[in-house]
Amino acid sequence: MIKVAVVNQKGGVGKTTTVVNLSTAIALEDLRVLVVDGDAQANASSGFGINRRNAKNLYHLLIGKATIEDVLIKVENAKLDLLPSSPDLIGVDTELRGKPNWELTLKNILESISQNYDYIFIDAPPSLGTLTILILSSAEYVLIPVQAEYYALEGVAQLLETVHYVRRTINPKLKLLGFLITMYDKRTKLSEQVEEEIRRIFKEMVFQTIIPRSIRLAEAPSYGIPGVIFDPLSVGAIAYKNLAKEIINRFARREVRV
Known about the structure:
Helix content is 40%, strand content 14%. The protein is an alpha/beta fold. The two termini are 17 Å apart.
């Protein structure tokens, strides 16, 4: 079982789009997948057509007021399971901080069901607060989407410092899975320049697959359907399916490094 946190404290970089479509693409490879929506905006949940704002969700699970059975949803159109979120999740900061071993709360929950899945993807909020620490403490790998725009690397150094801090103090097994270039526009010189810079700095840690700008990917959440199912022949859907195969092959060949 492989647990991947998708993290970037910079908003609007395609983080949730990546969680929804990559997890679905891997499920389409006949693998068992769980998605954990760790963002109070609950965009990953709505991306699967799930709205649990008035029902038990990840918040209640984290504070001990619900069981996994109360919260877990089977997403039929994506053939995966989901632990949904809601705006309640903002309250985790005050509910958990200060309790003994609070940072291991999500890790303990996921370990109790990990045998049921081949992959677990966790959508982190666009911040480096309590929720992100919980998520990094529970994950084995970190995937960082990086937008093909100016200031693409803004905040990445701070994010990597947080990853290293969690590795040193809480989760020594945490590894960097890679950087994913998103929102790439092949018509512009800028996207090409940003790609060159990211590959120059991070070298083989950058995925070969690039996620292009895609209207169909942007439209899909409004229908509550992952883009790879909404329009499987769109350039965005094909890119995420290629990324899924790249990740599966990396693990099969044991190419993932510390």
